[in-house]
């Protein structure tokens, strides 16, 4: 098997995650889909690291994880406070962009 | 394993592992976006992430594989589950699309994007894999550490700042400052009287002596269930059981069994009352 | 000595500023201040004049550079004065006649509660007019030109409570604007052609410019002169300008401002000398206006309007003379000065008559006034004799020279121009005799006013007479003394100027002089002039002196009726300009509504419609926006791949 298949898998996972972001209304699930996309990227980075024979790709993937962790902390806090004020976790309910 | 990772072409074992686990990962991803309940989505995602951790290991990223399990599956996904628990279940869980054309557009975009990515990958010349044999020679963790604390030390330090900021941000977002005196019980009751709703405590749920009955709506005098008697969360989840009809049937079955046990015929005065009521209903 | 030049302008300007800003505290003494400053200006002018006489001919011109107004690279606009013999002549005329009329106004405007403002305006006029003639470049001249226009506007409309006065002021302003446009275009052409607009460099460099350009500049200058000097076709405002107080008519609309056009053409003589076509246009304009004004003057019953027609006609003489080139410039200016004396005197006399007649201006309601106002009669009579060119008086000397010069033009042109000027002299004699007879001779035709309301006593001076029978009386000393002084000028100025060709020699360094050679001898010209004027006087006497003058004007011939209406000038303007303008604007409005607004509104509507559709994309749902973003990313990647594939 050619390791390039990892890249195909990552592309598939990324696309599924993106579709989830677009389709789901529950903010938490949307968030999970974002995490899925990030993970797909990480898989790509790891595969490229193997391809080039150095560890920089893994370093970047590591940083991605850290950033994702920070993002989850803040994002979930936002969801919680949103739920407190609106009693809903639907992203469609936060539609103040249209007056 | 390092030998595997170093090889240009993966071994048969890795191939088998890829196809089996890859399939499961895709199924998990699809589950994440297709399952109705957020908890199920989270569990599907956790499965996918664990499989990704295995793939990291297979690609020679041992440190990342472990971190993936600890950080993602262990911490982040648990955080998700906590929030799901906190937020509870709302109408957002419905999979019914409300924006016209959104789903079709999303699917079309997703398909187009996926096809583009795949075709892009197919056209790229990605045949030569050098493998990580040399890079991991001194140990994967040691190699990463050397990079992080030399080349990427600034980025690493800044990530620390980012994490601190995120922590403070989360606290600011979720912490609610009390800006006025807490109202006393007396004031709360006065407010209830002034607003003129639910003066007495909320009615108790119905009782049905078979199990925990908090999910059974109490019946109003005319036999209809009262929404007020069950918790809001249960109502949102649609888990309220309507037992008004079933209770009558159960009662009837119980009486019949009791009569059989006691070996008595149907006692006229006792049996005639429900029957009579039925007849009245029929009439 | 040249430092005094700025004072000439500054003195009346100071008066204007003080009087117009001073407020009511100055009401009691304001007219004395205004008169004093005008007189001061005259004294300075006289000092400069005698100083100039004391120097050699070649060194007489003085220059004073005050400061740079707009110094920008090659564009240099300076506040700088030039006092040469031509300017000197004007300075003395303006300040001299101006001072006399200031004195006259003290009496004439005695009962007007806005007298202080009137004197402020008069001072403003003097200052602007002096600036006009003292400027050493065309831009500063333009400044003064606009200044006198403003003062003229303010003074014509001085009794702005009369709608006719307000309208007349507006009309004068608008017609003058056409001429001013010509002057500004001429200045721009000069700057593009010569790179400067100072008199010296421009007039010295006329040889370098093409004749076409010089003709264009000349025609534009002629347009300016037509506007300011009420020449055909921009003459329509002068008759209406008589709505202003009579001293204004005398000073501005007879003696000084209306002659600014003659000054402009004479000053720009070098340009016209090099552009024969423009010169021909000047001559034609002068000749046409000469007859036009004379015909109008014959038909008017309003004494001031008859005199206004006469002014137009006399300025026509000057313009004609100025158009003749070096043989005529000096005579144009000479006639200008003598005309300044006798026409101012005539207007002041008319004002005096009106003063005594309850502000009645209709000559058919005068008659036999010589017994009641003898001083006015004598001074007016001397002015009359001067204007018709009675031998020996001022008008004779100057007009005769112009007629001679017209004949001297040579060829057919010379004969035609000579005939026109002779005819003009005859008509002048006719209409002035008519005015004289109708006013001072014959039966008295004035009646007690039937009632107070019917008397057109808009002049506040008449308020204490209103409703009473007019009782003609001699005017106060402050009015008669200026008239007497002007009468002296009317009688002796021409002779003085012509003595030993003094005036021509005086002006020669500025305007150059060529002795004209008329095809007939000078004596014959003079004789025919005298014959023509006697004929005119005789006809007028036969018509008005031998028969009683009807109080109500007879219907008259077609020409008379047309002449009463200023030879249909206003009707022509109305039909051609007003109606034409209305049609033009209406069609422009239609164009604007259909075409321009159509495009604009159509664009607005289509943008609005498009936005209405686009805003449906903005549904406020973040997911929807995410789809757009995602789709956009996909398109970008596709484009990148395609580009790399190519």
TrEMBL record, chain A:
Lineage top rank: taxon: Bacteria
Catalytic reaction(s) noted: a quinone + NADH + 5 H(+)(in) = a quinol + NAD(+) + 4 H(+)(out)
Recorded E.C. number(s)? Answer: 7.1.1.-
EC class, as a word, reads: translocase
* Subunit comment: NDH-1 is composed of 14 different subunits. Subunits NuoA, H, J, K, L, M, N constitute the membrane sector of the complex.
Main localization is membrane
The transmembrane segments are 6-23, 28-48, 60-83
* Family annotation (NCBIfam families): PRK05715.1-2, PRK05715.1-5
Matching entries from InterPro entries are given as: NADH_UbQ_OxRdtase_chain4L/K, NUOK/Mnh_C1-like
Question: Organism source for this protein?
Answer: Streptomyces gobitricini
The name this protein goes by in its record: NADH-quinone oxidoreductase subunit K
Its biological purpose: NDH-1 shuttles electrons from NADH, via FMN and iron-sulfur (Fe-S) centers, to quinones in the respiratory chain. The immediate electron acceptor for the enzyme in this species is believed to be a menaquinone. Couples the redox reaction to proton translocation (for every two electrons transferred, four hydrogen ions are translocated across the cytoplasmic membrane), and thus conserves the redox energy in a proton gradient.
Membrane topology, from the record: Multi-pass membrane protein
Which family does the entry's similarity section mention?
A: Belongs to the complex I subunit 4L family.
Record keywords: Cell membrane, Membrane, NAD, Quinone, Translocase, Transmembrane, Transmembrane helix, Transport
From TrEMBL, chain B:
Superkingdom: Bacteria
Region Disordered: start-end pairs: 184-206, 251-283
| Segments traversing the membrane | 16-35, 42-63, 69-92, 104-124, 144-173
Q: Give the membrane topology, semicolon-separated if more than one.
A: Multi-pass membrane protein
Subcellular localization, as worded in the UniProt entry? Cell membrane
Could you list this entry's UniProt keywords, alphabetically sorted: Cell membrane, Membrane, NAD, Quinone, Transmembrane, Transmembrane helix
Q: What class of enzyme is it?
A: translocase
Q: What is this protein called?
A: NADH-quinone oxidoreductase subunit J
Automatic annotation (TrEMBL), chain C:
- The record's principal subcellular location, in a coarse class, is membrane
All residue ranges annotated as the NADH:quinone oxidoreductase/Mrp antiporter transmembrane domain in the record: 135-420
Specify whether Mitochondrion is a keyword of the entry.
no
Protein location: Endomembrane system; Membrane
Basic and acidic residues: compositionally biased ranges: 462-473
Topology in membrane: Multi-pass membrane protein
| Location of the region described as Disordered in the Swiss-Prot/TrEMBL record | 451-473
Q: What is this protein called?
A: NADH-quinone oxidoreductase subunit L
Q: Which organism is it from?
A: Streptomyces gobitricini
